[in-house]
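Hi R.,

Here's the input for the MU-OXO-diiron complex you asked about:
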Amino acid sequence: MLSQAVLKALNDQINFELYSGYIYLSMAAYFETKNLKGCATWMRAQAKEEHSHAMRIYDFIVKRMGAVKLAAIAGPKTAWESPLAAFQDALKHEQAVTKRINSLVALAGKENDTATGIFLQWFVTEQLEEEEQTDEIVQKLRMIKDSANGLFMIDHALGKRTEG
Ligand code: FEO
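And here is the predicted structure with MU-OXO-diiron in place:
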């Protein structure tokens, strides 16, 4: 059985993962307005992935016979000054998610909840990947600076993302 503290933290994390998805969907909408369809495709896939993260926690709470409690999702930003600014925000956000996962792992340890600790290891590994892939895009966007050609190429490459 989950302790009240772990249950609350897991429910909060469901909300944060859905909020993450909301942010990425908002970034997708921003890229649509800039006609950067590849960036929009990448963000849509990322939004789906965040939803799957939320569901992973949802299913874990159910399996541990806890109650899932959904809360209101905060409104995301709707505009960025450049594609680089949007991806920089995405990276900052992923770093915040990593911090939260680390705090959850620490809480599970404090509560002597080994099952939750093991469950969270998947998220620890996932965050390494999330930060790495977002950082790579930020570096590329920095590299091309104001080159329209460079942006066109990056947009094309990001549009190949299919998994979410
Ligand atoms: Fe679910 Fe991108 O962290």
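One thing worth noting: The chain has a mean pLDDT of 97.

Cheers,
M.
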